[in-house]
Amino acid sequence: MTALVRTREELGKARAALTGTVGVVMTMGALHAGHETLLRAARERSEHLLVTIFVNPLQFGPNEDFDRYPRTLEADLEICRRAGADVVFAPDRAEMYPDGEPRVRVSPGQGGEDLEGLSRPGFFDGVLTVVLKLFQLTRPDLAFFGEKDYQQLTLVRRMARDFDVPVEVVGVPTVREPDGLALSSRNRYLSAEERVAALSLSAALRAGAEAADGGLDAGAVLAQAHRVFGAAASGVRLDYLALTDPDLEPGPVAGPARLLVAAWVGGTRLIDNTAIRLAPRS
């Protein structure tokens, strides 16, 4: 049976009752099939599953969609129950930030200044601050994050290492619709026409991956991804299309790499990425 807890005190009691390996999945709610994959992965590797649901205001800029971000707690709880979650922690804003917005925040450093950090200043300060708070409150052995938010996953791993947080951060592959669109809570904002236009993101990533598989170098891979994005996009505004190493350092020459894209589709900003392998220079 899944227990819903709302306060730190309730969470503390529920967490103390969990003996054995505890896995946590941190979410902002509006759960979909991608989240269900995270929950299943956590359940498979953990004796107990703890889920957090909190729409974190620190992650939203002044012109972003905090107020309209979907809140679907009852539906989310049903998904958590089906996944076999032991505890769902769903605090309100005052419970998470009893003294108001925290004066001390976690800085992502240089790794949070480009890509999403460049487009959304302060975003990763909010992400890492709430994740560290939730690590302290839930005390998990393992924490599961989706690879769709790849920069977030990378920074959370780095934070756990740098701050000696005793948790294993596990990345879970992106879940996609049959046509390739990465699942996201924000997909529900898309009109039918925008939903089609959004396929330009995954089309660009596929083109880049195919170019890499064909032995092309980094510059040619990125150029091919740009060409396909430009040909596929209609009513879509590119934010960035970047090729990095797996730790998000710029400019891989050969070997494992990551191709990342972000774009505005109408009024909705979407992100996606894929792993590729670049051939060695001849």
Descriptive notes:
The chain is α/β, with parallel strands linked by helices. It has 2 domains: 3-172, HUPs (Rossmann fold, 3-Layer(aba) Sandwich), CATH 3.40.50.620; 185-275, 2-Layer Sandwich (Pantoate--beta-alanine Ligase, Chain: A,domain 2), CATH 3.30.1300. The chain is built from 10 helices and 9 strands. The chain has helices at 8-16, 33-45, 73-83, 93-96, 116-119, 123-138, 150-162, 192-197, 199-213, 218-232; strands at residues 3-5, 22-27, 48-53, 87-89, 142-146, 168-172, 236-244, 255-265, 268-278. The strands form 2 sheets. It has a 6-stranded parallel β-sheet, with helices on both faces. Helix 6 (123-138) packs across helix 7 (150-162) and helix 9 (199-213) packs antiparallel against helix 10 (218-232). The chain is globular, with a radius of gyration of 19 Å.
Please state roughly what percent of the residues sit in beta strands, choosing from under 5%, 5-15%, 15-25%, 25-35%, 35-45% or over 45%.
15-25%
What structural class do helix, strand and pairing data support? alpha/beta
Mean pLDDT across all amino acids: 95
Q: Helix share of residues? A: 25-40%
**Total helix count?**
10
| Biggest beta sheet attributes | 6 strands, parallel
Which fold name fills CATH's third level, the topology of the largest domain?
Answer: Rossmann fold
Broad shape: globular
Our count of domains comes out at: 2
Q: Which residues sit in consecutive blocks of at least 5 with pLDDT less than 50?
A: none
The CATH class of the largest domain: Alpha Beta
